[in-house]
Design a protein that fits this description.
17 strands, Rossmann fold, Alpha-Beta Plaits, alpha/beta, 436 residues, eleven-stranded mixed beta sheet, 14 helices, Dihydrodipicolinate Reductase, domain 2
């Protein structure tokens, strides 16, 4: 049986999980590939730290170049995270003719165009299933399983920390800050949670998913990104009363005008399956013109879940080691010379429905003035609720659901509404998606 030697750059949670999955499932992996996969070397900043895996038989080093320059290692797995030295090490491995696997979604989103070109030039694979949604095989599903389809849109809960926070806010009625603290104590959120709660992590993943869906180069800088830190328990409650759940959603959609790529809080009808994805779980809905909508659900992080995706990439590479590179599955699912530059819509030109909450003085004529301004801007109202003030003299809350409208038209209307002397505070607005 052929022996395939693997080197790990990083031996933390995912690296240790990878070693464990390879050991636990070695028989099945050999049966699937016809190869015996062995981790021979691993680099780490501190090789004396306790590990979650058995390191017997693995040479540990603090110098990752030992792995890159080892002529016996055929597959390099980058699990260090960050930009450098990860990027330079990946390039060096590719240029030495080694296949590379990475879980580094930021690196792929920002530099994937360059890295995939280097891999193609050197007739090797740069695989990245573990970079998106942990253990959910969404890259393989979109690149291969749905390849008969023209993808029309996708929407995903692709950050477990944000989903946990919104779930807890709904279930407990807690404020964002309190739930964030709880998430940090449980280890779901980092000490600096910006990437998770402000949508940057989800935007990295959405950028890659959009390129897989529409066959275009990666355009991370054009993803509209909005976090969840301004979502309040009040809006979570009002959304529920209207039959919706608030989720932090990544949406990519191909329209006649261009491609939408946006990450933001979103009202989703509670009857949709994705609206019922709670806690730290992830899910992605993909809509193809042949199959319709399909849902992919599972853990978005964790040692074994993410290692499952890493090892699946190892299996794929082992299967093509003796196959000419022109027969490899393209990195983004489309032949590299067939990727198309598509126009990306700015958020002001995106059309969605909206949830609006207005804090108004409780006096006659307020609703008439609001609805007149909306009508003058071509905005129809689908539903309206007025919450009476808790005490005399306090503000009333008006909740509106609009029909679909171009965002710049809504912004123009809100400018006029907020100038009314009966409006006390800036409007709260959250986009609504029916996902039909």
């Amino acid at each position: 049986m052929n022996v395939v030697k693997v080197g790990l750059l990083g031996l933390g949670t995912v690296g240790g999980g990878t070693v464990n999955v390879l050991a636990k499932n070695s028989n099945d992996i050999s049966r699937r590939t016809g190869c015996q996969v062995i981790v021979t070397k691993a680099s780490a900043r501190d090789i004396t730290r306790p590990r979650i895996c058995d390191t017997d038989g693995i040479k540990l080093t603090t110098n990752p170049d030992e792995i890159i320059n080892d002529p016996d290692i055929q597959i390099v797995i980058e699990l260090m995270g960050g930009e450098e030295p990860a990027k330079s090490l990946i390039i060096a491995a590719l240029e030495q003719g080694k296949h590379v696997i990475t879980a580094n979604k930021a690196l792929i989103a920002n530099y994937g165009n360059e890295l995939f070109a280097i891999a193609t030039k050197n007739n090797v694979t740069l695989a990245y299933e573990a970079a998106i949604a942990g253990g959910i095989p969404i890259v393989k599903a979109m690149r291969e399983g749905l390849s008969a389809n023209s993808i029309e849109w996708l929407a995903g809960i692709i950050n477990g920390t944000g989903n946990f926070i919104l779930t807890e806010m709904r279930d407990k009625g807690s404020d964002f800050a309190d739930v964030l603290k709880e998430a940090q104590e449980l280890g779901y959120a980092e000490a600096d949670p910006e990437y998770d709660v402000e949508g940057i992590d989800a935007a990295h993943k959405l950028c890659i998913l959009a390129s897989l869906a529409f066959g275009m180069p990666l355009n991370f800088e054009k993803v509209y990104t909005e976090g969840i830190s301004k979502v309040t328990p009040l809006d979570v409650t009002y959304a529920e009363e209207l039959g919706y759940r608030i989720k932090h959603l990544g949406v990519a959609r191909k329209t006649d005008s261009g491609v939408e790529m946006r990450v933001h809080p979103t009202l989703i009808p509670e009857k949709r399956l994705i609206a019922n994805v709670d806690g730290v779980m992830n899910a992605v809905v993909v809509n193809g013109n042949a199959v319709g909508s399909t849902l992919y659900y599972g853990p978005g992080a964790g040692a074994d879940a993410t290692a499952s995706a890493v090892v699946a990439d190892i299996v794929d590479i082992c299967r093509v080691l003796d196959v000419p590179s022109q027969h490899y599955v393209p990195a983004l699912g489309f032949a590299p010379d067939k990727l198309q530059e598509l126009p990306i819509l700015s958020i002001e030109n995106v059309t969605t429905a909206f949830y609006l909450r207005l804090s108004v003085k409780d006096k006659p004529g307020v609703m008439a003035a609001i609805t007149t301004i909306l009508a003058d801007n071509g905005i129809s109202i689908e539903a309206v609720q007025q919450k009476e003030p808790a005490k005399r003299g306090a503000n009333a809350q008006v909740i509106l659901l609009t029909d679909c409208v171009v965002e710049k038209s809504l912004l123009a209307a809100l400018t006029d509404i907020e100038s009314l002397d009966s409006i006390n505070e800036p409007a709260i607005r959250i986009r609504v998606e029916s996902l039909e």
